[in-house]
Predict the structure.
Amino acid sequence: MSLSRRAAHLAKVLTRLLSGPKVGFADAEGIPMARSTIPATRGLYLVVDFVERDGVPLLVGSGNLMERVYKNQFQGEKASRAKRVIVKLGRARKMSTAKQYLMECCLVQYLEVNVEDNELQWYEDYVKAMLQPLSPG
């Protein structure tokens, strides 16, 4: 694939991610996200903090979406980069209260993709470079 075609393809991936499903970590009544809310397929995801008007990208990741988003970022304590950045920014005092912040102020956008690992990593790296999330790692 030529350089210009690759750049155009990556730009389309970013556009598809940003126009994809937006799922809150809790619904309007404050009921936490269910495990089945996020598909158990491979893909790319973006966690956005909407305390500021247009939203601030907290982190970008890839892999099995249900595993990464639901199990690691939402339910996980030590594995959650989203919760670590929330605490680091002072939006929650500790990891145990960062989950409540996720539920009240954040959502996740995702894009299901069926590509090889190296291509999925290129997608993630491109989205990180373009959006510059607060948790770069």
Observations:
- The beta strands are 22-24, 42-49, 56-64, 106-112.
- The longest strand covers residues 56-64.
- DSSP finds five helices and four strands in the chain.
